[in-house]
Amino acid sequence: MKKFLLFCGVMLVARLCFAQETFPVNGPWDVRPGQYAFINANIVASADQPVVNGTLLVKDRVIEGLGAGLAVPKGYVVIDLKGKYIYPGLIDAYTTYGIPEAPRTAFPQGGGFGRLPVYTSAKAGAYNWNEAIKPEMNAKSIFHADVSKAEEFRKNGFTTVQTLIHDGISRGTSAAVTLGDERDNELVLNDEAAAQYSFSKGTAATNYPSSLMGAIALLRQTYYDAAWYKNQKEEYNISLDEFNKAQTIPQVFEVSDALMVLRANKIAKEFGKQYIYKTDGKEYRRLDAMKATGSSFIIPLTFPEPYDVEDPLEARNISYTQLKDWELSPTNPVALEKAGINFAITSFGLDKSTDFWNNLHTALDYGLSEKQALKALTITPAEMLGIADKTGSLAKGKIASFIITSDDLFKKDNIIYENWVEGRQYVVTRMDVTDLRGNYMVASDALQGLTLKIGGTPGSYDVNVERSADSVQAKGTITRSGDMVSIYFDLKNKPSGNIRLNGYITSMNPLAFSGNGILPDGTDFKWMTTYTGPAKGGDSKKDQAKPDTTAGPVVYPFVAYGAPKLPKAETVLFKNATVWTNESEGILQNTDVLIANGKIKTIGKNLSDAGAKVIDATGKHLSAGIVDEHSHIAITNGINEGTQAVTSEVRIGDVLNPEDISIYRQLAGGVTTSQILHGSANPIGGQNQVIKHRWGVLPEELKYENAPEFIKFALGENVKGSNNGYVPGATLRYPQSRMGVEQVYVDEFTRAKEYKAARAAKGSTVRRDLELDAIAEILDGKRYITCHSYVQSEINMLMHVADSMGFKINTFTHILEGYKMADKMKAHGINGSTFSDWWAYKMEVAEAIPYNGAIMHNEGVNVAFNSDDDEMGRRLNQEAGKAVTYGKVSEEEALKFVTLNPAKMLHIDKWVGSIKAGKDADLVLWSADPLSIYAVVQKTYVDGLPYWDLEKDAANQKALKADEARIIQKMIAAKNKGAVTQKAPGRRPRSEEEED
Q1: Which of 9, 139, 201, 318 is most exposed, with minimal Cβ within 10 Å?
Q2: For the chain, what percentages of helix, strand and coil (3-state, to nearest 5) are there?
Q3: Which residues contact 129 (CB under 8 A, 6 or more apart)?
Q4: How many whole angstroms separate alpha carbon 917 and alpha carbon 251?
Q5: Residues 832, 815 contacting (CB under 8 angstroms)
Q6: Cβ density class 913-929: b for 16+ within 10 Å, e for less
Q7: Coil, strand, or helix at residue 432?
Q8: Is 185 left (phi over 0), alpha (psi -120 to 50) or beta?
Q9: CB-neighbour burial class of residue 396 (10 A; exposed 0-12, middle 13-18, buried 19+)
């Protein structure tokens, strides 16, 4: 009781000494310094500085001294902490503490027909045109301490947090604040801790962006706009002004996965930035790439719960990625530590604040060192937020934010007793009550013969209830806050429903509680307990089951059919194959092909190489890898940015997804190269990307380095919104007619010419426009057009516009009425990439015929068949065979429709599309004539690397099933040990659906 009274005095003095100087006092002015000496403590000043039997001196809000054998000055309140520990207060580097949730914009509605489009910001004031760019927002302006949330943080040992506005792409600035309950003015340590970014538009009402590539383009354009804004006098823009001001402080970028880190890092490199990445905690998926960024990370401890997999049918719905994530997520912190990557830990994203220490202990079980854990929760976030001179460690002159614990902070039965925030005491657990565990008899008229059995650990109690009269047992929940306890449970019978007990500790020795309760029917009653002895089997250290920390390897990519190691280039000699050269030599029988160093080295008979792997190709066919001129695989979060008529600033290359299972499946169909196109939602879409099917590599490594730049144009129903529906009151996106589509092209190329001229002028200060940059590249012959097209009249229109504006069309894709105008295409040197026999799937293809490809080919047009579909991309060899059926194209020429001809369209035929010495070793070994429906791909090589092998795939499928079964058994074991489980998803993600 004496200690309790002493702490009451401490609290009073602490309040008096924190009166803010600029605020008037209603009453006598009484300011006394809070002077405390904590003696005989095990002080962990930092992860590298333990002090045994030390003294910590605190005066006002500041640490006055720290060390062993330190003399206590007169006038200090002495607090003896013999056997206890003092640690620096923990810092959460990523929270929204004290920030109101961003209000959802009341989007304008169209009379029940959906929301109306919003093309530019309706926000009043001189702000950015796009509401997702809001750097003018700052946390310090809207921060207000939240007493309840602050208490949750303090219970976990946190004294300081970074708080931010979690909304938008450019989110403004955050603040570093302490978790006291004084006025907001007294809590702010750094009013501009960091500038915040993401790829999520949040609550912005503006339509643009509707895709990830649009978000990236918008942020890139904002950087260029901000650079231009510094030196212009044409306009005042609050957003750009604040964006520029925030560039000198730390830059924090929230991303959703490791691949998003790489996308953000491209922006960082482009503009000379070094982002701190707040991630999803799965950096282990691409650890080397994360380290290569040179960045620091803020990682959550959001480890997924095991799935309830006892029902085998439900277990089938869990993807391999989800299984592997469950197993490997707890290894993420130690993986970063071993890699030497600087990181802080955040509680952000946890469902419950009580999960924080449970998950941190799990990370420690998996190998994270206590030293690294302490750094990640103290000095590292302090350095990130520019407050390391104030907090993050215990040293003279720093603020007095620290925690007092019963033991080593990271022991599972450690108790956080007190949390001192800037010299102010907050009791978490009374020091003189170390352990509530035991058996208690409840005395109450409302609850006869009831026993409470409190177990668990002092930091995380559990309670079981037994009634002697009928042997009813129930598991309850208990929470403790200082001397206060709350218990609730459901006896299921007499009465049925939750019974709630609220009380406080009335005696220390023996322990006893007393308080009030409420029955399920709302009846109030009083209760008290008598301690009857220790809980049976109560040694929590022995009872706690150690998790199974064994884990399988990371696979690349991190989906089904990924592998722990990527394939390596081989020297391979194919013997006695039927070789479809696509060159003047034609089809060669019983011929050998030698590949080495990623290239085709020699073609001939009776070849030998002592170091080569020999493949007997007798009776088999060898062809060049298939080239798909029109594909939409391997794209993340949207193939269209259709919110504007022209979106030439967006780039498919920014959003490549190397984990799309379609890459692997199409390798099984012999595809080695694809052009990944923007969709056809607008007249001028985004920039395309040519890729090689390199399964397991990073996004940038998919890109084919020899390919030139392309862009997607489109004509017809899609771009004029024929199928978008009518929304009353809406200002629909221009254009709404085929005439308008033509005008879009004329306007855009006119603007691009003017832009080019203005930018080229001496001393030009013209703002860089990413949209017009791409159009100017077309005019300069540096970027090629692939145009979605169907109807003859529109195709004629675009050729006319191109002639009049001085640009060239490289390829008409789809071009289902190409047979009507093959002569004009030939005269203009325009390629035709079409379907073999698609027809009647919408009005503008009503006049398509299956002879289209053959007619254009016979007219001298370079013709290809494309997929435009992830499934058809696996069978393009069969599509090529249809040219033989429809039009009597020779087999040799038909195969070129999916190999050499599309390579010519993409201007990469110098390297791919045929079998010739010196070309890339992109080869496919077929079991039969490649145009046959019975032909099976046995091996696919890309750049001389064996990315597909039929026999290895069979083995991989068995290994995959075995690994899935292994992890499922681990999940069942975890459930049997008491782990909380989550329900299996309703169906397996489409990317990993099983096939018969």
Answers
A1: 9
A2: 25, 25, 45
A3: 120, 121, 206
A4: 50
A5: yes
A6: bbbbeebbbbbbbbeeb
A7: coil
A8: alpha
A9: exposed
Encode burial over 456-473: b for 16+ CB neighbours within 10 A, e otherwise.
bbbbebbbbbebeeeeee
Please, are residues 285 and 553 in contact by the beta-carbon 8 Å criterion?
no
Which distant-in-sequence residues (6+ apart) come within 8 Å of 153 by Cβ?
92, 95, 97, 161, 179, 347, 353
Q: Which residues contact 17 (CB under 8 A, 6 or more apart)?
A: 31, 32, 33, 34, 60, 61, 423
Q: What is the pLDDT, as a whole number, of residue 11?
A: 43
Cα 194 to chain centroid distance, Å, stands at 20
- Residues sharing a CB contact under 8 Å with residue 792, sequence separation 6 or more, in sequence order: 817, 820, 821
Peptide bond into 495 cis (omega under 30): yes
Q: One-letter amino acid identity for 262?
A: L
The whole-angstrom separation of Cα 686 and Cα 92 is 40
Amino acid of residue 168: G
Residue 460 · residue 514 · CB < 8 Å: no
* CA–CA dist 228, 218 (Å, integer): 15
Residue 761 CB contacts under 8 Å (≥ 6 apart), including other chains: none
Report whether 400 contacts 423 (CB < 8 A).
yes
Structure tokens at 299: 């990682």
* Residue 295, SS3 per DSSP: coil
Give the per-residue pLDDT at 202.
94
pLDDT of residue 722: 66
713/686 Cα distance (integer angstroms): 8
Question: Would you state the pLDDT for residue 986?
Answer: 78
Tokens (6 digits) for 181 = 């309950």
Q: Which helix or strand (DSSP H or E) is residue 515 part of?
A: strand 511-518
Give the separation between CA 282 and CA 257, rounded to whole angstroms.
7
Residue 471, pLDDT score: 86
Residues of the chain with pLDDT under 70: 1-21, 29-33, 103-115, 434, 459, 536-545, 722-731, 989-996
Q: Which two tokens stand for residue 367?
A: 């190998």
Q: Give CA–CA dist 49/925, Å, rounded.
A: 64
| Torsion 189-191-193-198 (CA) sign | positive
Q: How far is CA 876 from the centre of its chain?
A: 33
Tell whether the torsion through CA atoms of 860, 864, 865 and 869 is positive or negative: negative
Tokens representing residue 332 in the block: 């993420």
Pairing state of beta strands 945-949 and 937-942? antiparallel
Based on C-alpha coordinates, what's the Rg of the chain? Answer: 34
Find out whether 848 and 886 touch, Cβ atoms under 8 Å.
Answer: no
* C-alpha to C-alpha distance for 746 and 892, rounded to whole angstroms: 41
For residue 335, which phi and psi values (nearest 5 degrees)?
-65, -45
776 SS3 class = helix
Structure tokens at 488: 């609730």
Q: How far is it, in rounded angstroms, from Cα 382 to Cα 156?
A: 17
CA distance 710 to 783: 5
Would you give the DSSP letter of residue 169? Answer: S
CB atoms within 10 A of CB 940: 26
Phi, psi of 364 (to 5 degrees): -65, -40
830 in Cβ contact with 812 (< 8 Å): yes
Contact 735, 719 (CB under 8 A): yes
Q: How far is the C-alpha of 919 from the C-alpha of 908, rounded, in Å?
A: 10
* pLDDT at 457 (0 to 100): 76
Q: List, in sequence order, every beta strand (DSSP E) within 737-796.
A: 783-789
Cα(314)–Cα(319) distance, integer angstroms: 11
Helices (H) and strands (E) counted in the chain, each on its own, are 25, 43
Measured CA to CA in angstroms, residue 54 lies from 721, 882, 948 at distances of: 74, 85, 64
CA 544 to chain centre: 33
Task: Find residue 578's DSSP bridge partners.
Answer: 621
**Within 13 Å and on the Cβ side, how many CA atoms surround 242?**
20
CA nearest to 865, candidates 879, 885, 852 = 879
